[in-house]
Amino acid sequence: MPQTKSIAVIGASNKRNKFGNKAVRAYLQKGYAVYPIHPLHETIEGIKAYKSVLDIPEDIDAATFYVPSSVGLKVVEEVAKKGIKEIYLNPGAESEELIRKAKALGLKVVQACSIFSIGISPAEL
User: Fold this and answer.
1) Is residue 25, in this structure, part of any structural domain at all?
2) In which domain, by residue range, is 30 found?
3) CA–CA separation, 21 and 113 (whole Å)
């Protein structure tokens, strides 16, 4: 029986027009275990939010970045330390420096809209 995939949404938001919120809703629709990451919010879309991926007690399959690359550079080490193997760098979150650092940490880097990658258009959300 296939295991439910899990994803950390780094830069999750309570603002429904933001892609960090749309990603939370899209992955929930597809049956993923979703872990919103935001330093200030306690919940996002009714789900417990975490300040860091390191605070999540479960193993996570992937992380999707909805933060500027300057923030991504700070959290990518935590992502690697958590044992997350694959990251999505969404449009606007990527930089050559972040891609190099992620690859050096042994992460699989996907440069694409993570919402489209699961078959949903952000415009539908």
Assistant:
1) yes
2) 6-124
3) 13
Structural domain count, the chain:
1
Examine residue 1 and state whether it is found in any structural domain, yes or no.
no
Q: How far is CA 51 from CA 30, 71, 84, 90, in A?
A: 24, 13, 16, 20
Residue 37 Cα distances to 51, 100, 104, 118, angstroms: 6, 23, 23, 20
In a domain, 111, yes or no: yes
What DSSP line would sit under 82-106, residue for residue?
A: HT--EEEE-TTT--HHHHHHHHHTT
**Dihedral sign (CA 43, 48, 49, 55):** positive
Residue type, 94: E
pLDDT tens track for 50-108:
999 999 999 999 999 999 999 999 999 999 999 999 999 999 999 999 999 999 999 99
pTM: 0.95
The alpha carbon of residue 8 and the mean position of all alpha carbons in its chain are separated, in whole angstroms, by: 4
